[in-house]
Known about the structure:
Elements: E1 2-6, H1 11-27, E2 32-38, H2 43-49, E3 53-57, H3 70-91, E4 95-98, H4 104-113, E5 117-122, H5 129-134, E6 140-143, E7 156-158, H6 163-169, E8 185-190, H7 197-206, E9 215-220, E10 238-241, H8 247-251, E11 256-259, H9 263-272, E12 276-278, H10 288-298, E13 302-304, H11 312-323, H12 326-339, H13 344-356
Helix pairs in contact: 1-13, 3-4, 6-9, 7-11, 9-12
Amino acid sequence: MRIIVVAGGTGGHIFPAVAIINKIKEKEKDSEILYIGTTDRMEKDIIPKMGINFIGLEMSGLNRKNLFKNFSVCKKFINAINKSKEIIKEFKPDIVIGVGGYITAPVLYAAHSLKIKVLIHEQNSIPGLSNKFLGSFANTICVSLPGSVKLFDGNVVYTGNPRSEEIVEVKKVSKTTLGLVKDKKLVVMVMGSLGSVTMTKKIQEMIGGFKGKDYQVVIVTGKGYYDDYKDIEVPDNVKLVPFLDNFINILKDTDLIISRAGASTIAEITAIGLPAILVPSPYVTHNHQYMNAKELEDAGACTIVTEEDFSKDTIIKEIDNLLDNSDKYDKMRESSKKLGVLDSATRIYEEIRKLIG
C-alpha cells in the first residue's frame, strides 16, 4: 500500500495517527507511508525522529476572535491545497487518511478532488471543524466514541481510538518505582501533559487535605508548574512530579485517576478499565471535553466534576466515596472496560483495506 497520513497540532491527533501507521506496518511491511503535517507544530519534530517520511505545509487555524486575520488563513488554505495536489500526484497514494487538526482540511480536500480514497478518524465525541467539513468528502469516517456516529452522514464506523490498542500492550510498572507503598491504593491527578494554570492553585489548596488518608496520591504538575509547588507543605502520602515518562505503565498500577477529558485520556482509561473523576477543560472548542466525559458518565464509567466545582472538599469527598465503596468502584471499573475497544487500530486497518480493495 501507498498511504498518506495527515494529522497535526497536538499529541491527541499525532499519536493516534502513529498508532495507525504502526498497525499498517505490522500488517503490510512493504507499505510506503508519507506523513503530512504543519511546518510549525509538534509533528515536525516528532514524526521525522520516528523514521517516518514527513512533509510540512504552512497552514493556520481559523481565528475566531479577529475575523480579518482569516484572509491570510484562506490564502494559506488555497496554497496548501495546490501544494497537496502536487505531493499527491507525485506520491500516488492508494488512500489518504486524516486524523485531525486543521492541516487535514486542505490535504484531504485535494485528495478528494483527485479522486483518491479518503478516510478520516475523529477522536472526540464532537467533531472538530476540519472533520465536520471533510465528512461529506470522506469515503469512510471512523469514530472513537459511539455517540459520534449520529453526528456524521455517510459510511460511519465505530472503531474506537487507535491509541487504545497500543496501550493494551504496555507493561505495568509498580508504583513502588516512585517510592510508594505497594499495598496502599494510588490516586493519580494530572491536568494535561503540560499542566494547567487555572488548576494549579486549586490543587495546591487541597494537598494538605490528603494528610492521614489511607491512600497515596501522585500529582503530575506539568513541567511548567512544578516550581509553583516548592513552598507547599506536602504530606508523606503525596508525591509531586513534573512529568512521568512511563505514565501509562504507572496507570496500570493505579486505582483512580483525576484528569481532564481529552480524547487520548478517554482512550487510555477505557483501555485499562480505570475508574476516573474527570474535570473537562472548559476552554476547548464546542466544549468537546465535557461531551467526551458525558459519554463515560452516562455509561457509569466516571464521575464528572466541573472546573468551577473543583475544590479540596469536593474532590476529596469524591475520592473517599469511590475508594470506600467497593460495589460502586467495581461497577465503574467494569463500565470503563466495556467502553474500551482493544483492537481499534486493527479495525481501522480493516476499513482501509476495504476501501483500497
